């Protein structure tokens, strides 16, 4: 029950992020697909703790600033992101494209730890905390390249290589060949393999013995002509971070 309750709380937070409006109890229960009575118990608890407030009688509930304050306090104390954030910012400013910092999750997917948005109106706009398929992601390819062969083979053996479109690599042989080519040329590429018209280049970085990767992503028409230049800047950023260790 405690795990289910924790999941519901997270779903409430994500629902507000998606809806961006005050939600009456009935609307929130409908969006969460839970009984009104169960939703009311959660709302009363979160309101009592100061995370939600009633915007007006029968007008609905909305998160208070306490949620943001707690999130900012947690983020400022992150031992890894605090270390890499200045380099990510410099990389974003140098390329003016979206920068993503990621690692492999326990189940073998790519998890985005931090995202710095491009200043362009038309941009790649992922969200921190997203999970992505390792075989159709530049970060995933970079992270796979750091694994010892037995660990990499075990991960690939248990992975379903979903075809997102005609560009997706869906065989182990094709993926491994792409990784080998990427090592030789100096960057790992995703050219519309997961999201049409979105491209990204990535490079791995090892910090305190843990494997991570950083990518620069955006519309293919902006990324592909600059891939060698962006790859050079990206590799320099990763080298600098590793030398700080």
UniProtKB/TrEMBL annotation:
UniProt domain HTH iclR-type: residue ranges: 3-66
A Pfam family it matches: HTH_IclR
Lineage: superkingdom: Bacteria
PROSITE patterns attached to this UniProt entry: HTH_ICLR, ICLR_ED
Organism, as annotated: Achromobacter veterisilvae
Family matches, as InterPro entries: GAF-like_dom_sf, HTH_MetabolicPath_Reg, Tscrpt_reg_IclR_C, Tscrpt_reg_IclR_N, WH-like_DNA-bd_sf, WH_DNA-bd_sf
Residue ranges occupied by any IclR-ED domain in the UniProt entry: 66-245
Keyword tags: DNA-binding, Transcription, Transcription regulation
Name of the protein described by the UniProt record: IclR family transcriptional regulator
């Amino acid at each position: 029950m405690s795990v289910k309750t924790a999941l519901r709380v997270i779903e409430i937070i994500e629902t507000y992020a998606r809806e961006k409006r005050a939600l009456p109890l009935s609307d929130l229960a409908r969006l969460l697909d839970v009984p009104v009575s169960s939703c009311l118990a959660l709302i009363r608890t979160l309101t009592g703790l100061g995370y939600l407030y009633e915007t007006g009688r029968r007008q609905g509930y909305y998160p208070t600033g306490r949620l943001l304050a707690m999130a900012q306090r947690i983020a400022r104390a992150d031992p890894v992101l605090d270390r890499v954030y200045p380099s990510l910012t410099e990389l974003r400013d140098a390329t003016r494209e979206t920068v993503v910092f990621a690692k492999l999750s326990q189940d073998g997917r790519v998890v985005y730890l931090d995202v710095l948005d491009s200043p362009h109106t038309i941009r790649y706009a992922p969200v921190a905390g997203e999970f992505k398929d390792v075989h159709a992601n530049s970060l995933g390819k970079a992270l796979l390249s750091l694994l010892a062969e037995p660990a990499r083979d075990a991960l690939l053996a248990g992975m379903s290589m979903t075809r997102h479109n005609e560009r997706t690599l869906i065989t182990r042989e094709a993926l491994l060949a792409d990784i080998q080519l990427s090592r030789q040329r100096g960057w790992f590429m995703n050219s519309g393999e997961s999201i049409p018209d979105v491209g990204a280049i990535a490079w791995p970085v090892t910090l305190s013995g843990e494997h991570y990767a950083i990518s620069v992503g955006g519309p293919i028409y902006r990324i592909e002509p600059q891939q060698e230049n962006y790859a050079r800047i990206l590799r320099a950023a990763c080298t600098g971070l590793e030398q700080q260790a």
